[in-house]
Fold this sequence. Notes:
The chain is an alpha/beta fold and 229 residues long. Helix 1 (14-22) packs across helix 10. The model has no long low-confidence stretch (mean pLDDT 97). The protein has helices at residues 14-22, 37-48, 62-67, 93-96, 129-136, 142-150, 157-161, 187-196, 210-213, 215-226, and strands spanning 2-3, 29-30, 55-61, 76-84, 110-114, 123-127, 155-156, 174-179, 200-204. Strand 5 and strand 6 form a beta hairpin. The longest helix is centred in the first third of the chain and has 12 residues, at 37-48. The protein contains 10 helices and 9 strands. The chain starts with a strand and ends with a helix. It has a 6-stranded parallel β-sheet with strand order 2-1-3-4-8-9, with helices on both faces. Strands 5-6-7 form a 3-stranded antiparallel β-sheet.
Amino acid sequence: MLVHGAFADASGWNGVTARLQAGGYPVLAWSNPMRDLTSDSAALTTFLSTVTGPIVLVGHSYGGAVITQMTGNSHIKALVYVTGYALAKDENVFAASALGGAQSTLGEHLVFRPIPGAGPENADAYVDPAYFHHLVAGDLSKRRSAVLAASQRPAAVTAFSSPSRQPAWATIPSYYLIATRDNAILPKAQAAMAERAGAKTTKVAGSHFVMLSHPKVVADFVRKAATGG
């Protein structure tokens, strides 16, 4: 089960999906609403209730925060964080971004657009296209990055500020793929989250959108989690 994060959508997993399917794995790439952790995790919980058999949950970026909420489902055998937010209890995305002394400039380069009926305290956040390549897609071509910037999925500010519940990684085996060229969630913060989760960790010289730039590495890492490696 592949869960995308902010500024991407389920199609961002296409390269990973194709490789996993070629290996005989049934794959679902879920469309994450990215409104807030409470409603997003409720939506994923409901979706997972329709899935039979053992589940490996894979979360990229904010998708990691959502899979962290998935306690109480005995079918979930492993959590895989792909430069994702492995939050602690009561922690939110903003706080986790600063772990290990990390100082990402992502928050300085967001564009906010109103959400109908949400009021002034909430808005949809997009990465400023002028900084998109540097922050999230530095190892993709600038032409491809420009297309992704134009079609990016926003996340509500409340998604980033929502506190986490008791983390699923406390009881479920976890894996963490650190992208060492990520300028959105800095490697220092990724490493701090991986360490406290007790995750089996691998590093790759990739950007925040590592599932697009290194789909084979990501697919192989998911296979490792699926086989308990």
